[in-house]
Amino acid sequence: MFLYQIANDHVRVLGCRGYDGFIRIPEKIGGQPVTELAAYAFSDGWGKNEMLSLAGKEIRLCDEEGSPIEIEEKDIPPEISCEGLKDIYLPETIRKIGNYAFYNCYELSRVECSSSIFDVGSGLFTGCTGIRFLDIHIIDGERSCMKELLAELRQELYVNYFSGKGNARLVFPEMFEESVEHTPAKIILREMHGCGHMYRYSFDQTEFQFHKYDALFPHILVQEPERVTAALVLGRLYTPVELLEKDREVYEAYLMEHFKGAARLALEEKDPALFLWLAGQYGHIQEDFDGMVDMAGSADKPEILSVLMNLRRQRFKAGKRKFSLI
């Protein structure tokens, strides 16, 4: 259930109570649009207490579907905050998120929202070191908050980008700052590490620019491990939104040089679609293809193995396979 208050015919969500850390905030509560997430809504401590104290008697309760309810205090579930929050969905109606709304939610791993959030509070994801996935729905014709969200999330991040142009899978490498003292000058210098900050500048004002993102590949190639680089390459080739031919060729050259590692990464996904796409689109060398067959067999994935064996019979001439015990 959600704690909320009504302000000028709009709803502000103040917090959540329940037993499940996978939260979907409704678009409407009591027939009125949910437009705001209050400051410190999912945090804990004095900030949250002060926010609720200011709301006072205006605090109301609703169920998960947004229907107002009344319940005795003894029956109210525990608060979901900090380590209790795992995954959150914010509807398109949300226009504002207050300061430190997710402060110290270190178990939060995925955030889904639209790009039309107009007011993103400061320190929004402070302490949210566990976030790895951002699903963002781009609203055409409106200012996007994507750049602001990425600036708040400095860890290695996997972004599902949904838009009218198409959907894309993007990887943003980690970035971090280090303060270095310059003793003779008595100043502190701030040094940025990792190529993640460059990827977070792939914007024209607030609009994401795919060509700027793709042009940065030489940097990730020398600064990041194969796991991160291969994930970026797979994502761009699998979802080639606005992918220029010259960048496609660079990505494909990398893929063929690191085919085994990329295939292993694709197999780790819950959905077999990426792995099967890789086999169908780029598994034209029999040694590479047979390696994928071995991977699927070792991982005990009979449904994938069946598809691969059918494709193998169509693509390569029949012959005895050589198995290695090494």
Distance between the termini: 56 Å
Gross morphology is globular
Helical fraction: 25-40%
What count of helical segments does DSSP give? Answer: 11
Mean pLDDT metric:
92
Based on CA atoms alone, the radius of gyration comes out at: 24 Å
Organism: Lacrimispora celerecrescens
Protein name: Leucine-rich repeat domain-containing protein
What is the fold's blueprint, element by element?
Layout: E1 2-7, E2 10-16, E3 22-24, E4 28-29, E5 32-37, H1 46-55, E6 60-62, E7 68-69, E8 87-89, E9 96-97, E10 110-114, E11 119-120, E12 133-137, H2 146-152, E13 157-163, E14 166-172, E15 176-182, E16 187-193, H3 196-199, E17 203-204, E18 207-208, H4 210-215, H5 217-223, H6 226-238, H7 245-257, H8 259-267, H9 273-282, H10 286-298, H11 302-315
Helix pairs in contact: 6-7, 6-8, 8-10, 10-11
InterPro entries: LRR_5, LRR_dom_sf
Organism: Lacrimispora celerecrescens
Protein name: Leucine-rich repeat domain-containing protein
Provide structural commentary:
The chain has 326 residues and is of the alpha/beta class. It has a domain of 51 residues. Helix content is 33%, strand content 24%. The strands form four sheets. Strands 1, 2, 4, 5, 6, 7, 9 and 11 form an eight-stranded mixed β-sheet that branches. The protein has a six-stranded mixed β-sheet with strand order 3-8-10-12-13-14. The protein has a two-stranded antiparallel ribbon with strand order 15-16. The longest helix is centred in the last third of the chain and has 14 residues. It starts with a strand and ends in an 11-residue tail after the last helix.
